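Subject: for your reference before the review

Hello V.,

The reviewers asked for a structural picture of the protein, and I figured it would be easier to keep everything in one thread rather than splitting it across files. Below is the amino acid sequence we used in the manuscript, unchanged from the supplementary table.
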Amino acid sequence: MRVPHWAEQPRLTVNGTAVDTAPTDGWWVVGREWNGDDEVVLVLPLEPRFTVADPRLDAARGAVAVEYGPLVYCLEAVDNPEHRLDDLIIDTAVPPEVVSVDGPLGGVAMIRTRGRIRPRSGASWWPYRLAGGGPSSEEPSESVPLTAVPYYTWGNRERGAMRIWVPTA
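And here is what came back from the structure prediction:
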């Protein structure tokens, strides 16, 4: 059986008995004499998680994506209305949790976690500062709630910004 990379601690039973081997390289091989009445059950526990990209991927370096099972999630402006998405920093020390909500996305699992607001550097429109000038004088603000929705639902409620890769610092 194929076991996806995101499945942590999968369980496999044959006719109600746990299989005593473990998956290897994404496959769970069970060697036995099979008959038509055999029942095979593969349980893939779902837990929301933060995922990092390969460091060679410049656009996602220093950022994480929120995933739940095989789904990639995104932050949408409609769910995080108090802040610009490009000012948010996600706090990976706070475990993400699954929540359900009413409304247009009722029945869709949303993910809640925490983050901080990254201060804008100075009043200037210029987004750069001298290297070696030391860290920014302002630290990120207090903790704020963040809500993520499955990427496939993006743009189904109203127009607005969306972000998959969220900086961690």
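For the response letter, the relevant points are probably these. The first strand starts at residue 11 and ends at 14. The mean pLDDT is 90.

Happy to draft the paragraph if you're swamped.

O.
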